[in-house]
Specification:
about 220 residues; single chain; about 0% strand; Vanadium-containing Chloroperoxidase, domain 2; globular
């Protein structure tokens, strides 16, 4: 695809921060200076989000296109994490079984929280890959769900944090794998960076909660 010409950053998306910014603008017009300042910050965050998306789309890294698109597609339905949990349960002894159970519980919590209420509240349109000239060799099927936040990133972070808390030796490799999956969602054009960032943070929090709950149950 050609990269000639500028890519507009103000396409008609409706992310959560933009809708909130518009509401705050109305309050600012009614004489609330803090609301007006917050609205400006949210608009800047939205433009930064789309600017980073465009910068990733413009990366000239064809060697990464096939590996990252395959990884991103393979991560559907948390397949890498369920396979890892199965291996831990089969070969990891008591700690492996506890890590597997904790990791699967963390995935369940992330899926429930992120893919239901958070996505409904965010109600953000998916990025326009064609308009932003994301190279087609990177593309994976565009999900039909809303964009904010990233469920793939949330599940990956939740599993990595939960299992890493139980088996510290796995903390670094799992977090590296989760980070790669999260980046692949922007690289393949199906998420904005903000979607992924919020997904990672939400998943990490839920993963930590799952590991703490699992520790309490194990210590009873």
């Amino acid at each position: 695809m050609s990269d000639a010409g500028p890519v507009p950053l103000d396409e008609p998306v409706q992310p959560a921060e933009e809708r909130l910014a518009r509401r705050l603008e109305q309050r600012g017009a009614e004489g609330h200076p803090l609301a007006a300042r917050t609205s400006g910050l949210l608009h800047r965050l939205g433009r930064w989000d789309r600017s980073v998306y465009v910068a990733v789309a413009r990366l000239s890294t064809p060697a990464l296109d096939s590996p990252l698109s395959r990884l991103s597609h393979f991560a559907n339905h948390s397949k890498p994490w369920f396979l890892t949990a199965a291996a831990l349960a089969a070969f990891g002894g008591p700690s492996g079984r506890r890590a597997a159970a904790t990791g699967v519980a963390a995935i369940g919590a992330a899926s429930l929280v992120v893919n239901q209420p958070m996505k409904m509240l965010g109600n953000r349109n998916r990025p326009d890959r064609h308009g932003h000239r994301v190279p087609e060799p990177r593309w994976v099927p565009m999900p039909t769900s809303t964009s904010f936040p990233s469920g793939h990133s949330a599940s990956a972070a939740a599993f990595a944090v939960a299992v890493g808390d139980v088996i510290p030796a796995l903390r670094l490799p799992l977090r590296a794998a989760a980070g790669t999956v999260a980046f692949s969602r922007v690289y393949t054009g199906v998420h904005y960076p903000g979607d992924v960032l919020v997904g990672v943070v939400s998943g990490a929090v839920l993963g930590r909660l799952a590991s703490r709950l699992g520790r309490r149950v194990a210590n009873r």
